[in-house]
Amino acid sequence: MNNKILILPPHLIEQVKWDDCVHNHLNGLIYGQYDYLDSICDHWHGIVVGNYEAVMALPWRKKYGFRYYYTPPFMQQLGIMGNLDAVNHDTLARAIRQFAWYGDLHLNFSNHQLASALQSKNKTNFIINLKNGFEAIQARYSNDLKQILQKNSQGLLYSRDDNFLPAIESYREYYAARMPHVSEDDFLRFSVLCKQLANRSDCIVRSVRNHRGIMLSNVLLLKDKKRIYHLFNTVTPEGRTQHSNHKLINQVLQEFAGQDLLFDFEGSELEGVSTFNKKFGGHIQPYFHYKRNLLRGV
Q1: 109 with 153, same domain?
Q2: Which residues of the chain are modeled with pLDDT < 70?
Q3: Could you give the number of structural domains in the chain?
């Protein structure tokens, strides 16, 4: 509990040790990998506990000369990753408050103590254990979902389209207007990251098409050795009328069922998205939102 805490700029971080810490612990998520952070964040520093027993990324920007935390796009949960028994959470909370004057951080599902020390709020995420096998997964589906799959799967074709660029472009086409905080440069950075991940088969694209081969819905997934992450999901107006996205996620779960991985829905506070995710019977795994208000000083 007396391990020294350092806050380092990326060029002083030992990347191999950082990534080993993220890879070797169950709370190490793909967003915490060095290359992921370096690709997506405008700026970031890293907290290093001891000899990389635990690590934590701190994405930041500056406004009026003040450093503030922000939540980068395509990055649901960060927080402290690694051996949490090596961390003094009160000391860590002080370091976080001192490094930036205000802003938002999303802490991962394992960060209960840190979330308490920072007076953070719960956010909802759904996960499915793929290792249980498809029959066990399907048994938890809502009755509504089972009926939709039974009635609307005819004529819908599931395909493996591992070219990630069309998936990113379709997502931008249909949803970019709802996300003014995500810039053209953000999408470009994410495309570069996907190319790196695709080179090691960790960027996966699946789609559902109609009998004419027209895309009705697609999903871009990222993968590490612990989870499959539901990053992008696009549904066209025609796809909505045919419930193609229910078919798509059902087929993804069937394809990867039996593997020792979690399917991470990357939960949403949007009611429609949350309702859709709940239909698949996933378990709730909360994560945490730390928000510091400069004016209130909390």
Answers
A1: no
A2: 1-2, 152-153, 268-272, 294-298
A3: 2
Instruction: For the chain, state the CA radius of gyration.
Output: 20
Tokens of 64: 């009026």
Q: Assess if residue 69 is contained within a domain.
A: yes
Closest CA to 36 of 218, 217, 231: 231
Digit-coded pLDDT (tens) for 15-69: 999 999 999 999 999 999 999 999 999 999 999 999 999 999 999 999 888 899 9
Token digits for 118? 């920072």
Give the global pTM. Answer: 0.91
Same domain, 63 and 149: no
The answer to whether residue 103 sits within a structural domain is yes
Question: What pLDDT shows up at residue 269?
Answer: 64
- The predicted structure's pLDDT at residue 61: 94
According to the 3-state scheme, what is the secondary structure of the chain?
CCCCEEEECHHHCCHHHHHHHHHCCCCCCHHHCHHHHHHHCCEEEEEEECCCCEEEEEEEEEECCEEEECCCCCCCCECEEECHHHCCHHHHHHHHHHHCCEEEEEECCCCHHHHHHCCCEEECCEEEEHHHCHHHHHHCCCHHHHHHHHHHCCCCEEEECCCHHHHHHHHHHHHHHHCCCCCHHHHHHHHHHHHHHHCCCCEEEEEEECCCCCEEEEEEEEECCCEEEEEEEEECHHHHHCCHHHHHHHHHHHHHCCCCCEEECCCCCCHHHHHHHHCCCCEECCEEEEEECCCCCC
Cβ atoms of 189 and 43 closer than 8 Å: no
Asked if residue 119 is part of any domain, the answer here is yes
119 and 213 share a domain?
A: no
User: Which residue is it, tokens 């999903």?
Assistant: 219
184 shares a domain with 114: no
pLDDT value for 155: 78
CATH code: domain of residue 215: 3.40.630.30
**Structural domain of residue 206, as residue ranges?**
126-264
